[in-house]
């Protein structure tokens, strides 16, 4: 168990390629931190710097109170689970799990006890004599987790551990890793490109892009209050719709005008904010999540709701819901409505959405207006 | 129906041809076996035989009790074994370095091996002879071990490097995090994983000194260091003192270790040990 501190961490590769830029993060003891972002965003590099597999070009990493920049990986009290499991193919499951302890000269009976305990937690007790090649993907990943557990590290590092598993197994293992976190009660740092994994597992999520932290927050806050268009578009599935709009209005009353002339009402708070920040007569991006576009036939108009009329272009039946692909003011958008809605392709449809659900972003900086 | 018959005839013809050529290549070997296990003295015969007329083990008894033959056998084992050990140790270490580390001259080093392989063996003979002379190790076991090791390094390094390249880096990284040192990773992870490649490379290295005649003929003047190939050739040239039957028995004994090696390590030639450790 330990807290972690990353201060002004940079990773610069040969040729001045900046993989991670000024990474600052305080990780509390027992947190489940998820680093998420598209490939090449620097999330794995950050994890590997914490592990000690990559040098830190600039900045400091502390595990507990100890500066670990120049500490060898084996002395950092961490364990890591790799995307491709990285089991030792020539060793049995037992030996794979015991290897780290043997190197640390832990007494044999203690190794035996720890391996068997971990095997029981992961339900792989019956596989201890097998070689990795005789295991399924899910079993291999359990062994990789087991190898980390027996070490009883202060920090668990996981580099996309589920991305080689099939969809069903992934969901199952996701829950198991969460359970494991509760059971072991230690700090987890988990890297993934899958926002669903991030949202379901993390106590806090760090969204990265181009080596820079975009936002580090709880899943709920990331979803409800994304700090920029990237985060807003990355978190949530299907992603948030962005529609160009101009802030218009005379006197005190401000509203948004879409490209097709449709007027959208703003809450008093939003109006006040836009006035303060001088957005009158300026173009902004209005973001609205697909689930906040309600089918008008199922939800009558009431105070605070805007209305938009459009035509259904594509329908995707998901079971409990339908994804409707439409255009709002000429811009492709998706609405996520109940499958009770009776809609057909090419049919006119009206959506209601509350102005509180609208996210307002600066068109140029792509930052949320606040 | 017609197509099927045609296919069948084609199948029979190709296989008939293949079996015929196999038999053809096997005839000399069979003839050696016949001569070794038969009492006749001549290598040439007008009689057609499939099995020995007067079967005997006398030739083997004679060859194995011949003091020179046993000396040559011992020498061949020392040369081939020594070369294998020496070249394999060096090649494994350098192949691992070439596979895993970045250092100045890496590309040039690897390329130099290829260039060396492209040179005709004879081109190196004179310089080798001079080096051996200057080192003052002429007629020693080490002199030829050195030459055969050098001759096999290029193949061995490339072959082993190619295999190390296929072992995912993450396995080593997992070991680093588990607390293994570079040396421990090399000995406890990489070497066991490279067993198939090591076995194949070892067999190839072993084969070279074992079957080579020209090198030992050129470099060795001391009869007590002669190899089997060299000694047997001497017998073949001087068939007055030794019968053909004994010569053939000697040849069979010489072929045995390699045959056994190939049979034993067959599974490694097919084997893929890394299967299962990582995904993909």
From TrEMBL, chain A:
- What's in the keyword line of the UniProt record? ATP-binding, Hydrolase, Nucleotide-binding, Transport
The source's domain of life comes to: Bacteria
- EC number(s) reported in the record: 3.6.3.-
Which GO cellular component terms are attached? ATP-binding cassette (ABC) transporter complex, substrate-binding subunit-containing
Q: Name one GO molecular function term.
A: ABC-type transporter activity
In this record, what's one Pfam family?
A: ABC_tran
Set out the biological process GO terms recorded for this chain's protein: carbohydrate transport
Q: Where is the ABC transporter domain?
A: 4-235
The record's annotation in SUPFAM superfamilies points to: MOP-like (SSF50331), P-loop containing nucleoside triphosphate hydrolases (SSF52540)
The identity of this protein, by name, is: Trehalose import ATP-binding protein SugC
What is the gene name? sugC_1
From TrEMBL, chain B:
Q: Name one Pfam family in it.
A: BPD_transp_1
Mark the transmembrane ranges. Answer: 12-33, 77-98, 110-135, 141-164, 185-210, 242-265
One Gene Ontology term of the biological-process aspect is: maltodextrin transmembrane transport
Q: Which GO terms describe its cellular component?
A: plasma membrane
Q: Where is the ABC transmembrane type-1 domain?
A: 73-265
Location relative to the cell: Cell membrane
**InterPro entries to which the protein is assigned, alphabetical:** BP-dep_ABC_trans_perm, MetI-like, MetI-like_sf
What family does this chain come from, according to its entry? Belongs to the binding-protein-dependent transport system permease family. MalFG subfamily.
Provide the protein name. Inner membrane ABC transporter permease protein YcjP
